[in-house]
Structure formats: C-alpha cells, structure tokens
Design goal:
With 75 residues, the chain is mainly alpha-helical. It has helices spanning 8-18, 28-41, 46-61, 63-74.
Length: 75
C-alpha cells in the first residue's frame, strides 16, 4: 500500500523554518546576464547559481569555515 504524501503546504512550512531569505540588488543588465548564464550552465534558476557561487567562494577562501558547517551538521 502506498504511503500518503505530505501536503505541499506542510513541506513549505518545514523548509521556511530551516532557511532564511538573503537578498541583494543588482542592475537589470547584470540580472539578465545571470539569467542567460543559468540557461547555458544548467542551473535551475538564479538563486541556485548564487547559492553555488557563494558556497564555492567560501570553500575556496575560507576552507575552515566551510568544514565547520559540515562538522556542526553531523553533531
């Protein structure tokens, strides 16, 4: 027998408790460039690209902070 699916609105509430929204302003031209790059690079959307970009920058320039993120998640 198939288990019942969790309603979408409950999934969204759980996600909102674990995440925060961070935003910044960019020029329209830069926003368009980001959208085009996402299409070429295979990112789902600009937010996906920006998350990956920030994660890569922290991993490259502050590797100890990056490692701490995963150590804390395991504890």
């Amino acid at each position: 027998m198939k288990s019942p699916e969790v309603p979408k609105h409950r999934k969204n509430k759980a996600t909102k408790r674990r995440t925060v929204v961070m935003s910044c302003r960019v020029s329209r031209r830069f926003a368009e460039l980001i959208k085009r790059f996402c299409q070429l690079d295979g990112h789902i959307n600009p937010a996906d690209l920006l998350r990956d970009s920030v994660r890569e920058k922290i991993q490259r320039e502050a590797p100890e902070l990056y490692r701490q993120l995963f150590q804390e998640a395991q504890e």
